[in-house]
Design a protein that fits this description.
By secondary structure, the protein is α/β, with parallel strands linked by helices. The protein folds into four domains: about 55 residues, no CATH class; about 160 residues, Rossmann fold; about 160 residues, PCRA, domain 4, CATH 1.10.486.10; about 180 residues, Lambda Exonuclease, Chain A. The protein is built from 24 helices and 15 strands. It has a seven-stranded parallel sheet. Strands 10, 11, 12, 13, 14 and 15 form a six-stranded mixed sheet that branches. A hairpin with a 4-residue loop joins strand 14 and strand 15. The longest helix is centred in the middle third of the chain and has 28 residues. About 5% of the residues have low confidence.
């Protein structure tokens, strides 16, 4: 708007033409769209210039009135959309799949609809979207590379075992996992020891590829690997739209590999190895780079895209989905760097700039529709609270219809081995009702609350993961301090050198990036212990217990855990101390920390103690942050735990994609992992 106003000021004699005729949408689509966008006044061009921009449809028929449809849950919203696609195409024979578009504010919001279309066997493609590295076929290739380079990478190996062309039976995979858990070995050891024919073929492939890992360029290596594993065969034999897209995506990926080879040789004067390429891919994925995936033109498929990607396009049948607050409009994250208003030459809007931009985008989505427009949302998207409908829905001036539960078996969500039906196979659903553990821990509750699907991967499927350096370091520090204080409790003098000796003996070297990283963390641990020793060596310990185990029954479920340290207080009560090796939390976060509340509950109800003080001791910063809990706090925490356990019993394992997915052990096999 500012640019046009400036242009008119610079060129006052320029002729002004107002375009009001619309040849795309029916009037019944245009009218509510206009009711929406006028809410951007007085910052719209028409308001500034005193003109009308109320579009007039040039289509002879007025069309169909748009509908706002609210379902009960996400699966019901997905089910409603699938049902409507069948319904409209059934009564409008001139329309086919390519006339249907599903629009969402973000790529991740399209995933459940994509999965449902796949389950129903409806052809579809993502249009104008990034996400090449999110495609199943590309993730399979990367997993194969990782396994060949490091067969002990359990997560990648699990993905490889599920590649369709390898034809490894799902029961055999389950047995391998069970054996690995029972023997406390890694998954690769069980694969190596298996005599199953299909697994023998996989082992031969890995061995053959390992022998060539330094002999071939990455592109040669990948091409031969994909050929040898037979990955392309089923894609070529069954000429579906999805298979065509998979082949094109593999071709795009191979070209990306070749581009890397050229750049690497320019920079280093040497040909890259497969290991070089894997290192490069780790950096690329960590940085969030994700190039466009393949598209097929002039083909009969349902189109899925973001509203951004839909600009300039038109479709007879449009579904705008997930229209709830915080999704559309999104939250205002603010600019990374705020530019002072004095430095901005353009005329600034008087209203909320973020909401105005989101409203314009909503308008774009609505006006992609030529005839049918469905604005859909659900009451619940997996959280504890109902979602608030987008404020834009009220502005369009249409009545919202509650369509309730519409989910059917095919449109259902995460009932498969991977949490959703994957491109690997259609595994049998897990009977989660029989898999709820008899005992639970805070870590399990915390994992479920962070992401129910991660809980399923961790505690039901128990997919093995690589060692984590943070866990290794934390365990080392806990065990070191336990022995240090135990010796002091028995009257022994412990010098700083003695403490270092304990530390070296307890050191767990697993999960670090490399030898340099391991050495750096080892030295930082010694510095932490030196500071800890200087603070506590001269004083007298008043310790009641170290690493005290507890069992607590909440709502019919046994909870177990271990408190790092319990100190006696002059008040007659105790101080619960939990050591932490991560970044120190703020006081407000400690005041509402769920783990601290559970420890208070355990001390009082399971151990018969009076927890007057609850402390998180952040070892690396040396900070001790203390808090307290009331009986009301304990009751509320119990209610939350009972609710979580009930959701687990119901088999509610929806994904919760957030930026934290980047640090999740399962990001490479999870279909819903957040990619930015």
């Amino acid at each position: 708007v500012s640019n046009i106003l400036q242009f008119m000021e610079d060129y006052p004699k320029a002729e002004r033409v107002t375009l009001l005729k619309n040849y795309r949408s029916g009037q019944k689509v245009l009218d509510p769209s206009y009711k929406l966008i006028v809410n951007n006044n007085p910052d719209t061009l028409e308001s500034k210039l005193g003109i009308s921009k109320e579009l007039i449809s040039q289509i002879k028929t007025k069309g169909i009135s748009p509908e706002i449809c609210q379902a009960e849950g996400l699966e019901d919203e997905v089910g409603f959309v699938i049902k409507k696609i069948y319904e409209v195409l059934g009564k409008e024979p001139e329309y086919t799949y390519k006339d249907v578009a599903i629009l969402a504010r973000a790529n991740s919001h399209l995933d459940p609809f994509l999965m449902a279309l796949r389950k129903h066997g409806l052809p579809y493609q993502l249009v104008g979207n990034r996400g090449l590295y999110d495609r199943d076929e590309v993730r399979d290739v990367i997993a194969l590379l990782r396994v060949i380079a490091n067969p002990k990478d359990g997560v990648s190996l699990y993905r490889v075992l599920n590649i369709p062309s390898l034809e490894i039976d799902g029961d055999d995979i389950s047995k391998l996992l069970a054996e690995a858990r029972y023997k406390k070995t890694d998954l690769w050891e069980e694969v190596k020891n298996s005599e199953k024919d299909k697994l023998s073929l996989l082992k031969e492939l890995i061995k053959e590829r390992q022998e060539n890992i330094t002999r071939e360029t990455p592109s040669e290596f990948i091409f031969n690997m994909v050929t040898n594993v037979g990955y392309l065969r089923p894609l070529v034999e069954d000429e579906t739209v999805e298979n065509q897209l998979s082949i094109k995506n593999l071709d795009i990926f191979l070209n990306k590999v070749k581009e890397f080879e050229i750049k690497h040789r320019e920079d280093t004067k040497e040909l890259p190895t497969v290991v070089d390429f894997l290192d490069y891919m780790e950096l690329v994925l960590e940085a969030g780079d994700n190039p466009a995936q393949a598209e097929l033109e002039d083909i009969d498929t349902v189109n899925l895209m973001t509203v951004h990607a839909s600009k300039g396009l038109e479709y007879p049948i449009v579904f705008m989905v997930n229209l709830v607050s915080d999704r559309f409009p999104t939250r205002n994250k603010g600019d990374v760097i705020d530019v002072p208003n004095e430095l901005i030459k353009e005329t600034l809007p008087s209203g909320d700039e973020h909401i105005q931009e989101e409203r314009r985008l909503f308008y774009v989505g609505m006006t992609r529709a030529k005839k049918y427009l469905y604005l859909t949302l659900a009451k619940n998207y997996g959280g504890k609270r109902e979602k608030v409908p987008s404020g834009f829905l009220q502005e369009v001036g249409l009545k919202m219809e509650y369509v309730g539960k519409v989910a059917d078996e095919k449109a259902g969500g995460q009932d498969s081995l991977f949490g959703v039906t994957s491109a690997f196979r259609d595994p049998q659903a897990v009977n989660v009702a029989n898999l709820v553990p008899q005992t639970m821990s805070y870590t399990q509750i915390d994992t479920y609350n962070a992401c129910p699907l991660k809980y399923k991967y961790s505690y039901i499927l128990r997919i093995p993961t690589l060692p984590n350096y943070a866990l290794s370091f934390g365990t080392t520090m806990h065990e070191t301090l336990k022995e240090f204080h135990t010796k002091r409790m028995f009257g022994k003098n412990v010098s700083l050198e003695d403490l270092y000796e304990i530390y070296e003996r307890k050191w767990i070297p697993l999960g670090y990036d490399d030898e340099k990283h391991r050495a750096e963390r080892f030295e930082s641990g010694k510095r932490v212990l030196e500071e800890y020793y200087n603070k506590h060596a001269a004083g007298k310990d008043n310790i009641e217990a170290l690493e005290k185990s507890f069992n607590l029954r909440i709502g019919g479920t046994n909870f177990f855990g271990r408190i790092d340290r319990i100190d006696n207080l002059d008040s007659g009560g105790v101080e619960i101390i939990d050591y932490k090796t991560g970044t120190a939390k703020a006081q407000k976060d400690v005041d509402r920390d769920a783990q601290v509340t559970i420890y208070a509950m355990a001390a009082k109800e399971a151990l018969g103690l009076k927890p007057d003080l609850l402390t998180l001791y952040f070892l690396e910063s040396g900070e001790k942050i203390s808090t307290t809990r009331t009986q009301e706090d304990l009751v509320k925490q119990k209610e939350k735990i009972v609710e979580t356990v009930e959701n687990i019993k119901k088999g509610q394992f929806e994904a919760n994609p957030t930026i934290q997915c980047g640090w999740c052990d399962y990001k490479d096999i999870c279909p819903f992992a957040y990619r930015g």
